[in-house]
C-alpha cells in the first residue's frame, strides 16, 4: 500500500469510502490484497432514514495510511474525502512490548481521533502461531486482548477484534477472517449511514436559507452534487440522478420567476448568470465529469450555458449508466429549447448566430453520444426519438447559412465573412476527445461555414437557390428516404413538392408524373394544389409516349366479391366479380379500360369440381370472408399514397401438405411463402412499381397484355368509392388475378402484385352415381328403401337412357307402381319405368340437362341366409385375439352385417360401377340343451338386436333329416307375439326318443316376422330360419367296472361328425388337402374342465383331419380321472378351425393389428406332434417375452372359432355317476 498523497480528487464513480490504517503498516500491507478483494463480495442491507426503502449494496473501501491531515475540519462538507473508519493494526503478543511502545502509540492515535470528533474506530489484533513459538515468556493471547479492551474499550468491547493466522487456510483462520469481515462491513456501513444522514440534514438546512441574503446557488450546487457523487460511488445511479433533477428544477424555478421580488428576494446570485455569453462550444458528453465547467460553477464564474451544459452532461452520464439512452434525446431537446427561452428571460446578450452554433453542436453531440452506446438495430427501432434533434439541427444550420451569406445566389460579402469569423472564434479550440474524429460536430460546423460549396454538402436547399435542380434532386431524394422510413407525412409531402419542381425542370416526364400522382392523392395538400397536379397528369396523358405509373398513387383497391360466393362454377355458368375501388384523385377520372390480368392453370381445375378448396383459396389472406368477399389490407401497397403505402408487402402464406401415395395419409405439413422474392431483397436496390413512396421513383415496367384478362371499358371513377363489374371466362381451369391496370390516355396506372391472392375456378365434372340408404341401418329380411342420386356433370341425360342393375338371388329389387324421379331445380316428378329380367333390372331415366341432380328411390330386399354368420374375431393358436380391419357386426348393437354388391351399367360410361350396400340381420339366435332327470329339452333364444319392434309368428323346430325314433314336442303356447328392440323371445321343445339317439342331430328353427309399424302384417311377414346340429360325447368306466370311481382312470371317447359339406365361402377360407382322392380339412379339438371335476391325463388337445363330406365322423379316445364323487357334468369340448400359416384369411388382416407377442417357434411343427396345449401356451408366453420383437409379423397358424350354432355339443347338460373309492383304512382307538 502506497502512502497517501495530496492529489486533486477525480469525482467519478470509481471513488470509494476512505478507511485509515494506523499501527503496524507492514502487517496491514501483507493483508491488504485479501481484504480489498473479499470485502465487497457479500452485500449488506442499507437502511436509510425517513422511511426510504432499504437497498442491498456492496461496500468497497479505499485503505490509506493514517494522517492527521486526513481528518475532517470544521466546515468541510466533502464526503468523498471524509474518512469513515479508522483501524489500528497490531500483532503484539509480548506484554513488555505492549507496555513499552504499543500502548503509547494507541493512546496518541485515540487522542487524535477524539480531538477531531471521530468516534468510528476499530482495533485489530493479529495472532500468529509462528510468532508465539519464538517467544518463551508469552502469556495466553487473552491477556494482551484483555489489556487492550480494559485500556481502550471499556464500554465498547466489540471495537477490538482478534484475527487468527489470516494467511493460513485452516478452518479456524477462515472463521476468524469471516467474523472480521462482517464486523468491518457493519461498522463501515454504520459510520457511512450516520455521516451521510448528518450531511443530508446540513444540506436541507442550507436549502431552507435560500431566501436569506448572501445565499448562493453555486455553493448549494456543490453541496448537493457531493451527495450525488456519494450515491454514484455506491452505484445508486437513480438516487444520484434525483439530486441533479432537483438542482435542475430549483434553478429553473428561479429563472422563470426572474423579476418577481417576492420570490427572488435575496437572489442576487442570478446576476452572475446574466453576463454576456462569450463561448458557445456546445455540450460536452464524452467525459464523466467536465472539471473545467465545474470549477467555473464553484468559483461563481459560470454562464447560463456553462451551468446548463454541465448539469445535462451529468444527467446524461447517469442515464446511460441506467441504460436509458433514449431519455437523453428527449431531455436534450427540452434542454435546448429551454435554454433559448431562459436567455431571453434573463436578457442575456448573445452574439447573433452564437446560439444557433451552440444548438447545432449540442444536437450533434447528443446524437453521436447515443450512437456510441447503441447498436444499429436499436437506433433503427428508436429513430422517432432522434428525429427531433436532427430537425432542430437542420433548422439552425439553415439559419446560419442565411446569416453568413452561404445560401444567397451571390458570393458572401465582407460583412458575412467577418460574422463567420466571429462565430468560429467563439467555438474555441476543439476538445481533445474529438480531435481524432473526422465527423465531430466541431469539424462539421467549421466545414459548413468555411465555404459555399461546403455548406451545400450539409444543407441541400442551397442547390435549388443556386439554380442546380439536378444536384438538389439527389439531396431531396436522400431526405425523402429518411422521412419515409421514419413516417413523417408532412415532411414527405413538402419534400415531394420540391422534387416535382426539380423533375419538371429536368424534364423527367415519368418521374414527374409519378410524383404528381402521389401529390394529387395526398390529403395533406389543399384541394387547389391536388387539382393542379391532377391536371398535370391529364395534360401529359394526351401526348405520347405511353407511361406506366403505380396504381397506389391513383386508386386504392378495397374489396372484391364473387358471385357465386364460392368462386367455383362449372363450364357454361356465369361468374361475376365485383371490384370496389377508392379513387384518390380530387376530380372524376375517365378510364378508357380497367383490366385485370389472369394467370391460367389446369392444375387446380380439371375433370371434377373443387369447390371446397377453391373457396378456401379465395380468402387465403387474413381478410378473406366466407361469403365470397376478399378484403384488402389498408397497409398494403394498394392502400394509396398515404403512409400505409410505405409498408412492405404482407406475407403470402400457403399450407403445404405431403401425403403418402399409397393410402393418402398425411405424413407432413408446413407453410410456404409465395412472395419471398418481394420480402427478401436489399433495401438500397431500386424500388419496385408497388412502392412508389420510396426515395427512388420506380422505373417503367412492361404491362402484361396476356390473352386471359378481365376487362371493363369506358369507366368514370368518381373521387371516393367506385364499383366495377367483371364477367369471368368459362374455360375449365384455375385463374389467379396477377395484375391490375387502368388506362387514362397514354398513362397507365399499374398494380403488378395483388394481395391477398384472389383465385376462382371453372371446372368440368364427370357424372357421378351414389346410392345411400334412407335409414341409419338397412335391415335384412324386410323391404328397405335406398336413394339413387345422379349428378349429371357435363353429361346430358337423353330420352331412352337407362341404368342396368345386375340381379342377385340374395337381394332382389322390388317393383313399385308409384316410383318417380325428381330433377333438382325443376318442378314436378318424372315417372320411372322399371323392367326386370332374370339377370338385369333396367331403370329408364328422365331427360336431365347437364350439371343437374337426379334423385329417385327404390325398394330392395336382402334375404337372411339360414347359416349363421361368423363372428368378428379370429383366435390364434396362442390363444390371443386377431382383430379384423372391418367388423362383421354393428359396433353399437352387435348386429351381423351382410355386404351386397350391385353392378350398375351407366349410359355415360363403358365401365360398370360396383356399389356395395350393407344390410344388418335384426335377430341373433342361439340354442341350448336343458335336462330334467332323463328328459331333454331344446331351447332357442331369439334376440332382437335392432332398433325396430317386430311381430314373431309360428316358431317351428324340425329335423333336417327326420327320424321315426325322434319326436320334438312344442311347448310354445302363443303363435304370435311381439319382440321389442333389444329384447329376447325364448322357444322350447321337448325331445322324445324311442331308440338310442344318434351321435349327431341336425335341426332347423324357422319363424315369420314383420315390423310392428307395417300396415298389412299378413303380407309383410317374412321368413327367418336358423339351422344348427347337436353332437354328443361318452365317458366309459374302466373295463370290468359298471361305474366310474374317484381317482380311477376312465375312458373318454369324443365323436366329431360333419353334418354337411362346407359352402363355397367356407371352402375358400378352409384350406383343404387331398390324399388319394380324399379331401380333408384340419380341425383342432381341446378338452377343458372349467369346474375342476376332471383331470385330463395325457394329451388334452390335438389336430384331426376331417373328410369334406356329409356325415363324416372322427373319434378320439383319451383318459380322464374324476376328482370327486357324485353326478359330475361332462368336461367341455371345444372345436376350432385350424388354418395353417400359409392360408389366406377371408378378410385380409390390417397391417396395424399385427400381434406383438406371438410365438412361432413351436408352431412351425404340426400340432399333432405337440403335447398338451396348456404347456404350449406356457412355453410360448415365456418365449414371446424375449423374442417378440424378432418374431413379429411372421406368418403363423391361426385358430378360427365356429360361429354360434355351427357346432352343437350333444353331451351338454349330461352327467355321469362317479362312486367314491372303498376305504380300507383301519382306525385304532385306545381307551385308558
UniProtKB/TrEMBL annotation:
Matches recorded under InterPro entries: Ig_TRAPPC10 (IPR056917), TRAPPC10/Trs130 (IPR045126), TRAPPC10/Trs130_C (IPR022233), TRAPPC10/Trs130_N (IPR056913)
GO biological process: early endosome to Golgi transport; intra-Golgi vesicle-mediated transport
TM region(s), chain numbering: none
Keywords assigned: Golgi apparatus, Transport
TRAPPC10/Trs130 C-terminal domain boundaries: 1000-1219
Biased composition (Low complexity): 610-620, 1175-1188
Disordered: region residues: 607-629, 1168-1196
GO terms for cellular component: cytosol; TRAPPII protein complex
Superkingdom, taxonomy of origin: Eukaryota
Compartment list: Golgi apparatus
Record-annotated TRAPPC10/Trs130 N-terminal domain positions: 14-328
Protein name (record): Trafficking protein particle complex subunit 10
Species this chain originates from: Oncorhynchus mykiss (Rainbow trout)
Amino acid at each position: 500500500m502506497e502512502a497517501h498523497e495530496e492529489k486533486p480528487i477525480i469525482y467519478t464513480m470509481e471513488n470509494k469510502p476512505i478507511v485509515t490504517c494506523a499501527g503496524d503498516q507492514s502487517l496491514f500491507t501483507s493483508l491488504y490484497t485479501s481484504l480489498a478483494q473479499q470485502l465487497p463480495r457479500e452485500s449488506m442491507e442499507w437502511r436509510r432514514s425517513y422511511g426510504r426503502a432499504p437497498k442491498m449494496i456492496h461496500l468497497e473501501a479505499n485503505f490509506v495510511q493514517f494522517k492527521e491531515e486526513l481528518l475532517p475540519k470544521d466546515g468541510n462538507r466533502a464526503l468523498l474525502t471524509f474518512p469513515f473508519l479508522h483501524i489500528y493494526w497490531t500483532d503484539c503478543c509480548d506484554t513488555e512490548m505492549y507496555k513499552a511502545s504499543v500502548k503509547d502509540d494507541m493512546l496518541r492515535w485515540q487522542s487524535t481521533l477524539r480531538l477531531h470528533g471521530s468516534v468510528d474506530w476499530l482495533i485489530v489484533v493479529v495472532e500468529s502461531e509462528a510468532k508465539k513459538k519464538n517467544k518463551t515468556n508469552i502469556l495466553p493471547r487473552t491477556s494482551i486482548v484483555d489489556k487492550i479492551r480494559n485500556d481502550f474499550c471499556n464500554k465498547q468491547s466489540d471495537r477490538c477484534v482478534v484475527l487468527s493466522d489470516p494467511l493460513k487456510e485452516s478452518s479456524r483462520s477462515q472463521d476468524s477472517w469471516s467474523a472480521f469481515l462482517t464486523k468491518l462491513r457493519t461498522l463501515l456501513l454504520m459510520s457511512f449511514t450516520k455521516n451521510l444522514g448528518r450531511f443530508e440534514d446540513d444540506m436541507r438546512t442550507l436549502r431552507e436559507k435560500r431566501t436569506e441574503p448572501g445565499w448562493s446557488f453555486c455553493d448549494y450546487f456543490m453541496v448537493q452534487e457531493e451527495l450525488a457523487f456519494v450515491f454514484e460511488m455506491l452505484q445508486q445511479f437513480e438516487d444520484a440522478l434525483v439530486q441533479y433533477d432537483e438542482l435542475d428544477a430549483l434553478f429553473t424555478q428561479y429563472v422563470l420567476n426572474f423579476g418577481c421580488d417576492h420570490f427572488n428576494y435575496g437572489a442576487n446570485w442570478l446576476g452572475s448568470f446574466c453576463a454576456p455569453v462569450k463561448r458557445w462550444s456546445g455540450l460536452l458528453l464524452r467525459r464523466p465529469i467536465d472539471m473545467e465547467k465545474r470549477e467555473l460553477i464553484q468559483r461563481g464564474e459560470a454562464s447560463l450555458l456553462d451551468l446548463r451544459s454541465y448539469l445535462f452532461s451529468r444527467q446524461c452520464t447517469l442515464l446511460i449508466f441506467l441504460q436509458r439512452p433514449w431519455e437523453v434525446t428527449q431531455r436534450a431537446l427540452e434542454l435546448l429549447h429551454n435554454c433559448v427561452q431562459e436567455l431571453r428571460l434573463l436578457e442575456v446578450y448573445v452574439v447573433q448566430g452564437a446560439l444557433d452554433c451552440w444548438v447545432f453542436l449540442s444536437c450533434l453531440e447528443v446524437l453521436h453520444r447515443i450512437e456510441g452506446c447503441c447498436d444499429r438495430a436499436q437506433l433503427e427501432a428508436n429513430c422517432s426519438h432522434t428525429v427531433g434533434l436532427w430537425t432542430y439541427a437542420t433548422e439552425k444550420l439553415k439559419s446560419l447559412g442565411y446569416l453568413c451569406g452561404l445560401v444567397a445566389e451571390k458570393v458572401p460579402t465582407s460583412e458575412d465573412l467577418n460574422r463567420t469569423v466571429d462565430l468560429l472564434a467563439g467555438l474555441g479550440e476543439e476538445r481533445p476527445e474529438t480531435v481524432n474524429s473526422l465527423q465531430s460536430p466541431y469539424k462539421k460546423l467549421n466545414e459548413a461555414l468555411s465555404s459555399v460549396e461546403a455548406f451545400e454538402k450539409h444543407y441541400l436547399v442551397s442547390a435549388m437557390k443556386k439554380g442546380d435542380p439536378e444536384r438538389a434532386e439527389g439531396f431531396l431524394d436522400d431526405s425523402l428516404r429518411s422521412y419515409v422510413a421514419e413516417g413523417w407525412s408532412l415532411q414527405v409531402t413538402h419534400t415531394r413538392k420540391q422534387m416535382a419542381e426539380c423533375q419538371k425542370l429536368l424534364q423527367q416526364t415519368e418521374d414527374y408524373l409519378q410524383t404528381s400522382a402521389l401529390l394529387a392523392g395526398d390529403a395533406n395538400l389543399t384541394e387547389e394544389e391536388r387539382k393542379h397536379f391532377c391536371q398535370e397528369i391529364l395534360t401529359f396523358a394526351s401526348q405520347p409516349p405511353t407511361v406506366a405509373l403505380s396504381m397506389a398513387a391513383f386508386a386504392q383497391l378495397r374489396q372484391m366479391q364473387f358471385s357465386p360466393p364460392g368462386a367455383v362454377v362449372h363450364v357454361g355458368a356465369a361468374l361475376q366479380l365485383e371490384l370496389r375501388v377508392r379513387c384518390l384523385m380530387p376530380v372524376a377520372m375517365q378510364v378508357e379500360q380497367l383490366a385485370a390480368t389472369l394467370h391460367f392453370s389446369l392444375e387446380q381445375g380439371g375433370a371434377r369440381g373443387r369447390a371446397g378448396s377453391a373457396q378456401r383459396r379465395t380468402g387465403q389472406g387474413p381478410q378473406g370472408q366466407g361469403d365470397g368477399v376478399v378484403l384488402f389490407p389498408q397497409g398494403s401497397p394498394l392502400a394509396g399514397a398515404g403512409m400505409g403505402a410505405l409498408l412492405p408487402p404482407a406475407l403470402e402464406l400457403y399450407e403445404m401438405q405431403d401425403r403418402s401415395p399409397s393410402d393418402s395419409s398425411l405424413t407432413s405439413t408446413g407453410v410456404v411463402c409465395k412472395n419471398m422474392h418481394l420480402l427478401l431483397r436489399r433495401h438500397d436496390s431500386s424500388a419496385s412499381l408497388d412502392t412508389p413512396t420510396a426515395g427512388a421513383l420506380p422505373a417503367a415496367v412492361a404491362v402484361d397484355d396476356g390473352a386471359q384478362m378481365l376487362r371493363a371499358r369506358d369507366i368514370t371513377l368518381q373521387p371516393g368509392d367506385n364499383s366495377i363489374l367483371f364477367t369471368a371466362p368459362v374455360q375449365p381451369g384455375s385463374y389467379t388475378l396477377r395484375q391490375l391496370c387502368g388506362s387514362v390516355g397514354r398513362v397507365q396506372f399499374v398494380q403488378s402484385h395483388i394481395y391477398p391472392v384472389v383465385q376462382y375456378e371453372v371446372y368440368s365434372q364427370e357424372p357421378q352415381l351414389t346410392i345411400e340408404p334412407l335409414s341409419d341401418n338397412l335391415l335384412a329380411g324386410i323391404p328397405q328403401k335406398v336413394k339413387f342420386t345422379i349428378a349429371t356433370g357435363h353429361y346430358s341425360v337423353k330420352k331412352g337412357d337407362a341404368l342396368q342393375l345386375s340381379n342377385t338371388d340374395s337381394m332382389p329389387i322390388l317393383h313399385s307402381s308409384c316410383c318417380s324421379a325428381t330433377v333438382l331445380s325443376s318442378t314436378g316428378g318424372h315417372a320411372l319405368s322399371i323392367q326386370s329380367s332374370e339377370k338385369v333390372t333396367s331403370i329408364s331415366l328422365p331427360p336431365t340437362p347437364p350439371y343437374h341432380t337426379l334423385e329417385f328411390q327404390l325398394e330392395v330386399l336382402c334375404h337372411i341366409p339360414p347359416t349363421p354368420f361368423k363372428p368378428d374375431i379370429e383366435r390364434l393358436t396362442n390363444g390371443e385375439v386377431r382383430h379384423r380391419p372391418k367388423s362383421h357386426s354393428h359396433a353399437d348393437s352387435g348386429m351381423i352385417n351382410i355386404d351386397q354388391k350391385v353392378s350398375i351399367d351407366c349410359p355415360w360410361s363403358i365401365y360398370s360401377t360396383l356399389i356395395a350396400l350393407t344390410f344388418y340381420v335384426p335377430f341373433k339366435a342361439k340354442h341350448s340343451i336343458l335336462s330334467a332327470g332323463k328328459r331333454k329339452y331344446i331351447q332357442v333364444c331369439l334376440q332382437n338386436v335392432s332398433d325396430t319392434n317386430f311381430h314373431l309368428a309360428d316358431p317351428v323346430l324340425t329335423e333336417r333329416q327326420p327320424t321315426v325314433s325322434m319326436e320334438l314336442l312344442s311347448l310354445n303356447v302363443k303363435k304370435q307375439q311381439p319382440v321389442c328392440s333389444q329384447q329376447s323371445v325364448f322357444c322350447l321343445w321337448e325331445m322324445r326318443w324311442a331308440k338310442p339317439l344318434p351321435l349327431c342331430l341336425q335341426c332347423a328353427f324357422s319363424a315369420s316376422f314383420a315390423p310392428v309399424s307395417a300396415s298389412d302384417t299378413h303380407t309383410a311377414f317374412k321368413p327367418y330360419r336358423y339351422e344348427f346340429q347337436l353332437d354328443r360325447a361318452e365317458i366309459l368306466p374302466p373295463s370290468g367296472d359298471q361305474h366310474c370311481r374317484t381317482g380311477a382312470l376312465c375312458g373318454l371317447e369324443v365323436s366329431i361328425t360333419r353334418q354337411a359339406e362346407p359352402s363355397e365361402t367356407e371352402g375358400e377360407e378352409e384350406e383343404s388337402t387331398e390324399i388319394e382322392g380324399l379331401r380333408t380339412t384340419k380341425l383342432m379339438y381341446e378338452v377343458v374342465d372349467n369346474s375342476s371335476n376332471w383331470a385330463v391325463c395325457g394329451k388334452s388337445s390335438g389336430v384331426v383331419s376331417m373328410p369334406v363330406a356329409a356325415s363324416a365322423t372322427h373319434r378320439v379316445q383319451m383318459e380322464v380321472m374324476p376328482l370327486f364323487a357324485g353326478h359330475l357334468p361332462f368336461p367341455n369340448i371345444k372345436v376350432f378351425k385350424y388354418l395353417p400359416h400359409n392360408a389366406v384369411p377371408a378378410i385380409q388382416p390390417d397391417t396395424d393389428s399385427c400381434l406383438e407377442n406371438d410365438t412361432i417357434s413351436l408352431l412351425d411343427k404340426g400340432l399333432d406332434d405337440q403335447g398338451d396345449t396348456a404347456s404350449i401356451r406356457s412355453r410360448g408366453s415365456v418365449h414371446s417375452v424375449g423374442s417378440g420383437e424378432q418374431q413379429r409379423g411372421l406368418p403363423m397358424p391361426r385358430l378360427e372359432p365356429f360361429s354360434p350354432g355351427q357346432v352343437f355339443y350333444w353331451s351338454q347338460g349330461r352327467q355321469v355317476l362317479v362312486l367314491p373309492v372303498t376305504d380300507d383304512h383301519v382306525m385304532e382307538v385306545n381307551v385308558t
